[in-house]
Amino acid sequence: MSSPSAVPHTFPAPIGGVPFNQDFAPSILFAFLYAIITIIGFYRLARSSSRCLMFIGTLAFVFERIVIYGLRAHQAHDPSERASDSLTVYWQMTYSIGYVSILADIITILRSFLVNSTYPPNDVPVYSRNDGSDSSLLVGNAADTSYISLDRPQDDQPRARFWFRRICGFLALSTWISIILGTVSGLHYVKAETNANQVSLVQSLRYACTSLVFIQVLIVQVLSLWAFFCVARLRRSAALILFIIATLLNIVSVYRLVVMRLQTPALVSTGPSSLNDPASKVTFYVFQAAPEWIAAAILVSINVRQTYGTGMWGDFRSTDKKS
């Protein structure tokens, strides 16, 4: 009497799949597109009117994406590299936490943006006007339809300023939890390929990381919409830009949450649940690669310093400077 066949070992399918020949062209394309953003970023840093550190994390993300898509192009042409443990760990880590760099930057920008709205119009903080820019970039007026047309309180709002700093500060710190979860899940990914005991751990860490990022971005979306509709003395178009960037980031989170349930029996499998079939590759480039690039391009292309009144450093105080 024959013994029952063993259940085949499966593990979480790799996000982005393993680069095959069809990945060469899109990898080269995205490496080129990110190189363009790099040029724009250096232009922003070279000009004193747009120089600030509020998008430095995004610029680092852009450099990293040039590297990763260059490596994907190389791996697509070299079959011997497709099962590389080190590259597999790198892919799964960077796809989990790379776009958190953009999230961290827009949280910092949102903090300065909201804090600026709590000062009287004639008492805008020094950091937001030290480049000689017009304070009307920050404070609305009745003739400018790009600003929200609600009653504009003229008094100082230290309590609101306190809570804006606390909320955005908490969000900024929580991004490190996402980074740690994504890093650990990536480091354990290759172990799950051969060890069934690691599968549930990797899957749990992936879901925890992406779910947390989704919630963090959702809070940024809510705050941006709230600023758009309810906060007087702020430019509506600036709030809308933050909401758009956050929405692009959450497209990535939703995509990841949808596909992370899939499991594969082998890293280079091309089965329907392997994320290596052509349809899955197209989905990856449309719902993760493209939104990441668009979000980075928007943030680097705008003049963050003038649009959001960040100055070089933004709002870095935990409390107001005492008289």
UniProtKB/TrEMBL annotation:
Keyword list, A-Z: Membrane, Transmembrane, Transmembrane helix
Source superkingdom: Eukaryota
Transmembrane segment boundaries: 24-45, 52-71, 91-110, 167-190, 210-232, 239-262, 282-302
Name of the protein this chain belongs to: Uncharacterized protein
Annotated organism of origin: Hermanssonia centrifuga
Taxonomic path: Eukaryota, Fungi, Dikarya, Basidiomycota, Agaricomycotina
